[in-house]
Design a protein that fits this description.
By secondary structure, this protein is α+β, with helices and mostly antiparallel strands. Helices cover about 30% and strands about 35% of the residues. Strand 3 (about 20-30), helix 1 (about 40-55) and strand 4 form a beta-alpha-beta unit.
Length: about 80
């Protein structure tokens, strides 16, 4: 899990947890004025890198159908629908 700060104020974050032993990207947040600046993909990639450093080779997530901005990010990052 990671948090991006601007003057000690959170502007973006990821929350990763284990679900049935598999890392789950449970939450991604980007403040409205910070959207489109690449913070979400950067924090997701940091999470992936940290998981890999700890021996994990998978990261799952769930996204609400219709959340097109999130789906575009996940697809660009190589996530696939299961």
């Amino acid at each position: 899990s990671y948090v991006a700060l601007e003057d000690d104020t959170p502007v973006a974050a990821t929350l990763v947890t284990l679900y049935e032993g598999v890392p789950l990207l449970a939450f991604v947040y980007t403040g409205a004025s910070w959207k489109g600046q690449g913070l979400a993909p950067a924090l997701i990639q940091l999470s992936i890198n940290a998981l890999a450093a700890h021996g994990y080779d998978r990261l799952s997530l769930v996204v609400t159908r219709g959340n097109e901005p999130a789906m575009r990010i996940y697809e660009r990052m190589g996530f696939a629908e299961a």
